Amino acid sequence: MCNHPAIRSACSALVLTLAFASFGVAHAGDDVAQPVSAVDQLPEGQEVSDTVIALAGWVVASSDSQGYPFAIMDKAAAQILVFGGDGRLRGAAPALFGSATGDHVAPGIAGLALREIPGRDRTTPAGRFVGGFGPSTDAGRVLWVDYDSAVSIHPTATGVPAEKRPERLASPSPDDNRITHGCINVAPDFYEQVMAPTFERGGVFYVLPDEAPLAETFPEFAQSRAHAEADGGTSAQPDSH
Fold first, then answer.
1. Beta-sheet pairing, 79-83 with 26-27
2. pLDDT-wise least confident of 57-61, 100-104, 107-111, 160-164
């Protein structure tokens, strides 16, 4: 069950959202509005941001993923949350992201070898991406987030021991999780237990920005959130990200 405080918070918010959702497989009164089991690998005491919870609720309520599984990646917190096509939370875990802070994709980066990518361009781009499993030139079958910018999700790479990627992933702080050339790394067991079965037929990936305004990255979500806050009589406050 959802034992971690942050996972319980995410579950509670999504249960309320699902109770009023009216798309595809999620209808009021359906069993999707019940508590769900989820693989929880988040470090003890690490919270899930209000923005992540609100975005997940919006994806479900608006059917933005069109019934496909989806994942939300929070670069600042070094977290990934994975949801099934029914909106159920499948798992949450720490992740490694691009070593460079930023949300851009450098032109032609997909055609470069890893060692050729300049440090400033080793970013994990922000935005909404439709991806899935497919072949790669040097790593076999991978889970593509965005094929055009060569960003994929894969188990933690250990080819360069000095990078200490497993240790970075296991540390409780997100501050040391920026180490990749732009791809997203997760623990091998999380990849096999959650990522692979959930995205077997593809899905939608939402990557929160480092620097770009949320309204620029996810305009429809930002607009919906602003309207909800206005209707509730509260002013929009920036999320601590």
1. unpaired
2. 107-111
**Contact present, 161 and 119 (Cβ < 8 Å):** no
Q: Rounded to whole angstroms, how far apart are CA atoms 4 and 40?
A: 7
Q: Tokens 């997940």 — which residue? A: 56
**Predicted pLDDT at 84:** 95
Burial 28-58 (b: 16+ CB within 10 A, else e): eeeebbeebebebbbbeebbbbebbbbbbbb
Give the tens place of pLDDT for each residue, 181-230: 888 999 999 999 999 999 999 999 999 999 999 999 999 999 998 888 88
141-146 and 178-180 as β-strands: parallel, antiparallel, unpaired? unpaired
CA angle 173, 203, 28 (to 5 degrees): 95
Laid out side by side, the sheet with 79-83 consists of 39-40, 89-94, 79-83, 70-74, 203-207, 127-135, 141-146, 151-155, 184-186
